[in-house]
# Entry
Amino acid sequence: MKQTVGGIARGVGGKVWGDESTEVTGLASIQSASPGDLVFVEEARHLGSALGSKAAAVIAGTFAETETTSKPLVIAAHPRLAFARAAVLLHRPSERAPEIHPSAIILPSASIAVSAVIDPWTFVGANAVIGEHTWIGAGCVIGTGVVIGQESKIYPRVTIYPGTRIGDRVVVHAGAVLGSDGFGYVRDPSSGRHEKFPQVGRLDIEDDVEIGANTTIDRGALEITRIGRGTKIDNLVHIGHNCNLGENVIVAAQAGFSGSIVIEDNVVIGGQVGIGEHAHIKQGVLLGGQAGVLPNKVLRGKGEPFWGTPAKPLRDYLKSLGALAKLGRKQ
Amino acid sequence: MKQTVGGIARGVGGKVWGDESTEVTGLASIQSASPGDLVFVEEARHLGSALGSKAAAVIAGTFAETETTSKPLVIAAHPRLAFARAAVLLHRPSERAPEIHPSAIILPSASIAVSAVIDPWTFVGANAVIGEHTWIGAGCVIGTGVVIGQESKIYPRVTIYPGTRIGDRVVVHAGAVLGSDGFGYVRDPSSGRHEKFPQVGRLDIEDDVEIGANTTIDRGALEITRIGRGTKIDNLVHIGHNCNLGENVIVAAQAGFSGSIVIEDNVVIGGQVGIGEHAHIKQGVLLGGQAGVLPNKVLRGKGEPFWGTPAKPLRDYLKSLGALAKLGRKQ
Amino acid sequence: MKQTVGGIARGVGGKVWGDESTEVTGLASIQSASPGDLVFVEEARHLGSALGSKAAAVIAGTFAETETTSKPLVIAAHPRLAFARAAVLLHRPSERAPEIHPSAIILPSASIAVSAVIDPWTFVGANAVIGEHTWIGAGCVIGTGVVIGQESKIYPRVTIYPGTRIGDRVVVHAGAVLGSDGFGYVRDPSSGRHEKFPQVGRLDIEDDVEIGANTTIDRGALEITRIGRGTKIDNLVHIGHNCNLGENVIVAAQAGFSGSIVIEDNVVIGGQVGIGEHAHIKQGVLLGGQAGVLPNKVLRGKGEPFWGTPAKPLRDYLKSLGALAKLGRKQ
# Structure
C-alpha cells in the first residue's frame, strides 16, 4: 500500500520536513533500505546514515529539526513508535471477503458473524461464537462454547478447548493450544498412583492480547486462568492453571508459569524464566532471562530488574557473581 | 450430571454426616462455590469457611466428625483424593456414539474398533490399530503400524509417527508429537558435515499415561523409548531418544531429557529441569524446578529434593546460596 | 531393504573381512541385535561382545583388522559414520509415486513439481513453489509465496508463514512453525500499551537443515532470519527474529535465541541454553546445557566448552562450583 509522507505524518502525529508528496511503499532498516522505503532513526548519531541511505523518507526525533536535507523527514517525539504506526498504514492487509470455506465444519448451534472468515478444515463446536471481522485459519479446532470477539486473528492449526473466552483484536499464532487441562493430580497413598484433580475451570483471554506460536495456556482447575488486556506472550511459553496475568504484561519465549501465579500489570518476564506455584510478581517488576522464582514468593520492585535463581535484584546478583569469580580465582 | 451426597460418599468410600439425599451438580473451590456445588477442605482451620460458603455439600477429613452443621458432609481419610473421585462421578462425559467421520482417511489395512470415535480430517495409516472406546480428535495423523489401546483419548492435532505403541486409558493433549526422530548425528571429520545417525527404534507408551499439549517424545535410535505406566507429563516437555521413564513419574512443564536417560519409578521432575544424556535418576528422587543434571550422573535420594545446577540435595543447595549471599554482602 | 556385506562396504568406503555375500536386513545395537542385523563397534574393548552377539555382521575400526572370526566385518576408519551411511543403504524409503491428494487445496498460482507428493488437507498458498521429490505431509499450511526446494520432507502439521524460503534436502518435523511474527513491540509511554513493531522480514532456511518437532523460528522484523546450510535443530527450540545461524550448527532441544543473534559456523548449543539479544557466538564454541549468554555478549573459544549463566569457560565454571561447595560446607 502506497502512502505519501504527508499522509504518514498525519497518521502518526508527526510533522513533515521537506516534500510531503513523496511516496513511500515499504519499510526497512537503514542498512537494507531500497528506493521507496521508509526508515526511522532514534538517535542523532545515526541520522547521517539514514539520510545517506536509499530510503525515500526518514522518521526521526526532534533532534533532526535543524537538519537541512533534500530527503523528506517526519519528525516525531517517539520515532520507533511512529514507525510502528506507519507500518500499520503501509501494511494494512486488504480485508478478505467474508467466507466460510465449504470444507469447514460448523455445528448448527454455533454462531459465526457475517463478516468472519473461516478457512479450510476448521471445526467450530456447539454454541461457539465467532465475532465480526475475525479470521480463523486453516486446521483450527474451536471447542464447544468457545467465544471469540471481533477483529481477532487465529492463525492456522490452533486448538482451543471448550469454554475458552477470547476478546477483541486478539492474535493467536500457529500451533498454540489454549484452555487445555491443567497439570494436577492427587496421589493415592495406598496404590502410589496419581489420580487426576478436576480441571473444569476456564481460560479467559482479554482484548488486544497476542500469543506466540506453539504456546500452551491451561484453563483453571476449578476457577479461571486469566490473561489481561494488552498482554503479549511469545512462542513456546507455558502458562499453568489458575494463573492470573494482569494488563500489558510482556512474556518472552519459553518462559514457564506453574499454577496459581499472580502477575500484576506491566511486568516484564524474560525468556526461559520459571515461576513456582502461588508466586506473586508485583506491578512493574522485570525478570531477566532464565531467572527462577520459588513457589509462594512475593517479588516487589521499582523497575529494578531481577536476575538468577532464586531471583534477586540485579545489584545483589552482580555482587554474588563477582564474589564467586574472585573466590574461584583464589582456589 | 447430578449426584446425591449419599451417592458420592459411596463412590469415594466416605461417610455421610447429615442429609444424604442432598443433590450436588458441580465442583468448586470454597471461594467460588455456588448453590449446588461440592467443595472440599483438607485442614480443620478451613472448615468454617467451607460451611459458611454457598456450597451444597463439603468433603472433609476426619477432623470434621465432631462438627454440628446443617450442611451435609462427606467424611473421607483423604479429602482431596475423595474430591478428585467425586469429580469423576459428576463430570463423566456422556460417551459419544461410535463414529468414523466421513472426512477421515483410514487406510484399508488399519483396524478401528467398533466403539471408537474418529473425528474429521484424521489420517490413520496402514496396519494401525485403534482400540475400543478410544477417541481420536480432529486433524490427527496416526502413522503406519501405530497401535493405540482402549479408552484412550487423543486430542486434536496430535501427530504419532509410525510404529509407536500406546496403551489403554492414555490421554494425549493437543499438538503433541510422539515418536519423532531422535536428535543424533555423526560428524564427518573430513567435510565437517553432520550425517544422520539412524533413528529407527520405537516409542512405547504404557497404560494410564497422560501427555501434555505440544510435548514431544522421540522414538529410540536403535532401541525403544519407554514411558512407564501411570506416568504424567505436562506441556512442552521434551523427551529424547532411548529414554526409559518408569511408572508413576511426574514431569512438570518444559522439562527436557536428552538421550538414553533412565528415570526410575515415582520420580518427580520439576518444571524446566534439564537432564543430560545417560543420567540415571533413582527411585523417589524429587528434582526442583530448573534443576540441571549432568550427563552420566547417577542421582540417589530418599524423598529428599534436589535443586540447582548441577543438582544437589536441598540442604547443600541452601548452604551454598547462603554462603554466596553473605560473600556478596562483604564485597 | 536387503544388502550384502560387500555392498555395504562399497557404499561406506570400508573393507570386508570375511564373507562378503552375507546379507544384512536391519540395524541394531549390540544388546538388541537379532540375526540379520548389522551392528557397529567403536572401541576394541567392545569388539568381543559384538562378535558374540546375534548380529549378522559388524562394522568396526581398524583395531579389528587382526581379529580372526567367522562373523563378517566391515573395517572403516570411522565406524559410527560408516554405520550411519549403511543405515541410508538399508533404510532408503521406497519413493512414493507423485501425488496431490484430492483433499489438498493448491491455489492456481502455486507451482508444484511433477514428482512432489502433497498429502491430505494441506494448503498451498498463492505463488508458492514446491520442488521435485519434495514431500508435504498431511495438514500442513504453506503460506503465500513460500519456496521449498527439492527432496525436502515436511512432516505433518507444519505451518510455514508467507514468504519463507526453504532449500533442498531440508527436513522439518511435525508441528514446527516457521516464519512466524517476531516478538517486537514499542511501548506507548502515554498509554502504557505495547504496539506491534513491524514484523515484515523473511525466514531463509538453507540446504540440508533439519528442524525438530514443534520448534518455532520467527521471520525477521525488517530483515532476514537465516538458518545456514547443514545446521541441525532439535525439538521445541525457539529462534527469534533476525537471528543469523551459520553452517553446520547443532542446537539441542529447548534452546532459545532472542532476537538478532549471530551464531557462527560449527557452534554447538546444548539443551535449554538461552541466548540474549545481539549476542555473537564465534566459530566452534560449545555451550553446555542450560548455559545462559547475556545480551550483546561476544563469546570466543577454541573448542573449549562454556557452562553456566553467565556462560564461562568450563575450567572457570568448575573452579567457582568447587569454591562455592567448600564455602557451603564451612557455614
